[in-house]
């Protein structure tokens, strides 16, 4: 007789109902429920019952079951606050790794996706993937030694500034040392545990949706403007990846088919008007060798070239976003990446550009700056790893 | 003690499980299950069990319960085929109404969304909304007299070529007599039963997804090119409407900000290069007063102006679709509306335009002609009405 694992009970059965109820409780504990405080305050059993819609007795059974398996910690209530429940630290840790054009960031998180510790280092832009992984590995080992307390890392989330489909890193001028690499296979082997790879803008969208300014918005767009320009889409409260995982490639919308040649080979792409590299290159004569921070400082001091260049970048970003709001009609647009440090110096013209090109019904979609800043993709990588970690006990 | 309606049993309870199981069976009978034959062949109880994942005894109980309420008809099996089940015609009818720039179509359908009878009439473009409704009402009455057999129409689906949000018909140069009308309120009053309004391209997307060429594709885009250019999006097997219901406004993507002034007030919109009106206007000197059918005939006969005009329209459509595939990464694009009659005369250059402007990863997204043709929106209106009709019995 074939052995049937407990998890695959027939749909509609009482066993599957029990599994589903346990998953509801775990999901609230993971911090996914929109009503949950974002600051990690543990919920009470009564709140768990309200948030899951389950009977208090059912919740109490499930919590006891999870606690006896060491997956949750409970703490007796004090005063008017009843027993609180949280995922146990000993249930496991996850790690997030975020590679950029010139940086790598590594973080440890708990199974709810909350950050435990993090580190960030500069990296040279032409690094080979294994060179990058060696540095990340060293950083992770150091974080674990200091903050891990012997708890194992169960899953790793890895963000890369490139389109990723079927785990393969597709064409990326931003990360040349990674192109064609099967990121999941190579990194899972390297770290000797499951690694889940994702485009960095997608991770930023996830992070802003769960813990940032897009919280509570069912459909939002996270626009990341750094060395490249990419977007992550949240549709009906979930990350939307498209058929092959490449959705959100806003950076290569053609704005002018006779425009400047883009590194992707096409012409007049948004990225060729609005990336950090483009802005730096446009100011090469006026502010030689200035990085984005010096350009932003100059603009704040009233340097006309710097102001105008940022404005023009913003108008083009707005044009690209008009395509997004016309097609997707999101309820919020979040602008992140290093360029978002420009704040209203950029966003003001982004809004003007969007209004100029969007249909009336969508032209007033709010455009706001990222709340999580440059850490958005790293936080998203930890959330991805936590999401992919199963937290369940059999009956 | 407050009375609690049976339908709102607590989530996770056995009663809600029963309700959910009944809904699964009903959903398969509605023809929503992807595995179901599209031709309306009734399913057997055994197939129902397989398609719902429920135990045969559970299915058999639910079917008995639905049959005793007159909602399904069963027929004893013959040979190797067991008892078959279908939604009872006497359970109710629905109607679909599709208004266009110059036509109105009306159809009767059963609760599975299958068409029972239909009619189509020409309409002058400047009709007031109540004039249009009077004609549609007359057509519906005639269809009911001939095909209704006294069964009541429970719900009506209504398609309009305009952005619709909060039931209000937003700016539409295509249907001037409807702008600002609260379509749901006005028409529900007129027909004295619930009317569900929806953008016509959205209805076309729904129809192609359920009964047309997009069947089995989780993420698809239906592009409607008629007097206007609009799109309907299927995301994760569901119609995606966006935050305010205006998603899919592809017709007003800015392709050239110095381009021709569009009727929307912006410049260089896709619609200003590719709608039927644009194509007719471009050929006003070469083929005076030719409608789209004469233009297509001329192109097939090798008329250089007609061929070139269609080609240019197609290249611009491809550019607009490149924005769609870059952002959404769908697995199929379906081109419908009257312009789709052009077939490869148009689609060949659409594909070239798309490849020219899309990122590599998405440039090869298949572009195919609509299978349901001009009836797509009407079929979608019937499906919408059927979907919104509750089919359930209390415990």
TrEMBL record, chains A, B:
Residues 30-89 form the HTH crp-type domain. It comes from the Bacteria. GO terms for molecular function: DNA binding; DNA-binding transcription factor activity. PROSITE patterns: ROK. SMART domains: HTH_CRP. Gene3D superfamilies: 3.30.420.40, Winged helix-like DNA-binding domain superfamily/Winged helix DNA-binding domain. InterPro entries: ATPase_NBD, HTH_CRP, HTH_MarR-typ, ROK, ROK_cs, WH-like_DNA-bd_sf, WH_DNA-bd_sf. Belongs to the ROK (NagC/XylR) family. This is ROK family transcriptional regulator.
């Amino acid at each position: 007789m074939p052995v049937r694992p407990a998890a695959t009970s027939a749909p509609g059965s009482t066993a599957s109902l029990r599994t589903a109820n346990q998953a509801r409780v775990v999901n609230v504990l993971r911090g996914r429920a929109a009503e949950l405080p974002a600051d990690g305050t543990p919920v009470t059993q009564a709140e768990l019952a309200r948030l899951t819609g389950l009977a208090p007795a059912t919740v109490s059974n499930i919590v006891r079951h999870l606690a006896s398996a060491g997956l949750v910690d409970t703490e007796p209530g004090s005063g008017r606050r009843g027993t609180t429940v949280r995922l146990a630290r000993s249930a496991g840790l996850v790690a997030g790794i975020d590679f950029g054009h010139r940086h790598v960031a590594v973080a440890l998180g708990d199974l709810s996706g909350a950050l435990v510790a993090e580190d960030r280092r500069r990296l040279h832009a032409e690094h080979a993937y294994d060179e990058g992984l060696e540095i990340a590995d060293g950083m992770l080992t150091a974080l674990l030694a200091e903050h891990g307390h012997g708890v194992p890392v169960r899953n790793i989330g890895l963000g890369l500034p490139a389109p990723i489909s079927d785990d393969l890193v597709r064409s990326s001028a931003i990360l040349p040392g990674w192109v064609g690499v099967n990121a999941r296979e190579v990194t899972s082997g390297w770290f000797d545990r499951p690694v889940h790879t994702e485009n960095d803008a997608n991770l930023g969208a996830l992070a802003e949706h769960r813990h940032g300014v897009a919280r509570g918005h069912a459909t939002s767009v996270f626009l990341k403007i750094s060395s490249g320009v990419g977007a992550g889409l949240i549709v009906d409260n979930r990350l939307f990846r498209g058929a092959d995982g490449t959705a959100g490639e806003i950076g290569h919308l053609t704005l002018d088919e006779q425009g400047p040649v883009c590194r992707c080979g096409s012409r007049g792409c948004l990225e060729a008007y609005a990336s950090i590299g483009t802005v730096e290159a446009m100011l090469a004569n006026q502010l030689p060798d200035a990085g984005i921070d010096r350009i932003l400082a100059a603009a704040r001091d009233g340097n006309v070239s710097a102001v105008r260049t940022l404005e023009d970048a913003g108008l083009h970003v707005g044009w690209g976003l008009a395509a997004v709001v016309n097609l997707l009609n999101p309820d919020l647009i979040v602008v992140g990446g290093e360029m978002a440090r420009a704040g209203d110096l950029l966003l003001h013209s982004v809004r003007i550009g969007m209004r100029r090109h969007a249909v009336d019904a969508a032209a007033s979609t709010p455009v706001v700056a990222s709340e999580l800043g440059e850490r958005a993709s790293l936080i998203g990588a930890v959330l991805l790893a936590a999401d992919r970690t199963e937290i369940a006990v059999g009956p």
